[in-house]
Design brief:
The protein is mainly α. It contains nine helices and no strands. It has helices at residues 22-63, 67-70, 74-92, 99-117, 120-123, 126-149, 155-178, 181-213, 219-245. α4 (99-117) runs parallel beside α9 (219-245). The chain is globular. It starts with 21 loop residues before the first helix and ends with a helix. 28% of the residues are buried.
Length: 249
């Protein structure tokens, strides 16, 4: 995002003024803060709506018995890999898609994720899933608030955590063949820590991007992509935390 230019004009002292007008600076700061709050609120609204849609679809699929069809066979692979396809489409087609198209893809992604996650109701009790969900929501809120308010630059931490995600994927693939419970436990612990850190990092990253995006046509798309990032942080943290808090059927 570093190549995005801030096309908006900063208000304050008039052109050629020898002394800046304090009132103008205060007004400019207030306008910026109001715009930032609106931008972040839009991201959180999209993210929360996506999580809610995913939860409704997952619970509905489990209640109707549709989840059993996704637990094995060809449909399992289709539903499992479909979310990745949507993410790739959103990232690589970002500049070609209209904002309306990107919105449709986001809702479709959240729906397919719900179908994919519906199988957790076949493994864990509904009560433990609910407890883990609210625990994740509380942790997410705290971590996101810290990422938004901290003065510490989290860029270095974010780079390290993103590398950790790739390492996590490799470890999960290896354990898919090994089927080691001890390794699965370690992977789950690392997964919780990595996505907890990414929640704070992504929040700060999205906050900092606003200064480059405000006043541009890309801002609407950036809201959807930002919501997708936080959505993935939430869902992954929930799934890894479920391995600890979930009670199996």
């Amino acid at each position: 995002m570093s190549d995005w230019k801030d096309t908006s004009q900063r208000t304050g002292a008039g052109f050629g003024s020898a002394v800046p007008r304090a009132g103008g600076d205060v007004a400019s700061s207030a306008t910026y803060d109001e715009g930032l709050r609106s931008y972040m609120l839009s991201i959180y609204n999209y993210m929360a709506s996506g999580v809610l849609l995913t939860g409704i679809v997952a619970a509905g699929a489990a209640a109707t018995g549709l989840a059993y069809a996704f637990a094995s066979g060809p449909l399992m692979w289709i539903v499992a890999l479909a979310p990745l396809g949507f993410i790739l489409a959103m990232n690589f087609g970002l500049h070609k898609m209209s904002q309306a198209t990107l919105q449709i893809v986001f809702w479709a992604f959240a729906t397919v994720m719900g179908l994919s996650l519906s199988t957790i109701f076949l493994v864990f009790t509904g009560e433990s899933i609910a407890v883990t969900f609210f625990a994740t929501a509380a942790a997410f809120a705290g971590l996101s608030l810290w990422g938004y308010t901290t003065k510490k630059d989290l860029t270095g931490m974010g780079t390290f955590l993103i590398m950790g995600v790739f390492g996590l994927i490799v470890a999960m693939l290896v354990n898919w063949f090994l089927q080691s419970e001890a390794m699965a436990f370690v992977i789950s612990g690392l997964g919780v820590l990595i996505f907890a850190g990414l929640t704070a990092y992504d929040t700060q990253r999205l906050k900092n991007q606003y200064q480059y995006l405000r006043g541009t046509e890309f801002m609407g798309k950036a809201v959807i992509m930002g919501a997708t990032s936080l959505y993935l942080d939430f869902v992954n943290m929930f799934m890894f935390l479920l391995q600890f808090l979930g009670s199996r059927e």
